[in-house]
Write a structure and sequence with these properties.
The protein has one domain. It is 42% helix and 14% strand. It contains 3 helices and 3 strands. A 3-stranded antiparallel β-sheet has the order 1-2-3.
């Protein structure tokens, strides 16, 4: 899964793990919440394409690092 952080300095971060770990990260990044239907649709996209765009996710660079993401654009 790749996440692009756009608060402050734009950066690309990468995280790996199980779907359950991914769900926890997604829930933390969506401060306004995300529905079960949205998660199910996202899981379908991940299983098919191995990546998905998370429109509406809000994260600072420290947020992403606290979730265990590694910066890959340096």
């Amino acid at each position: 899964m790749l996440v692009v952080a756009t608060e402050g300095v734009p950066a690309v971060y990468e995280g790996h793990g199980s779907w359950s770990k991914c769900v926890l990260c997604i829930r933390r990044l969506f401060r306004s919440g995300i529905s079960g239907d949205e998660l199910a649709a996202m899981k379908e996209i991940f299983e098919r394409d191995r990546y998905a765009t998370l429109a509406g996710a809000k994260a600072s660079l420290p947020d992403l690092e606290s979730l265990g993401y590694q910066r890959v654009d340096k």
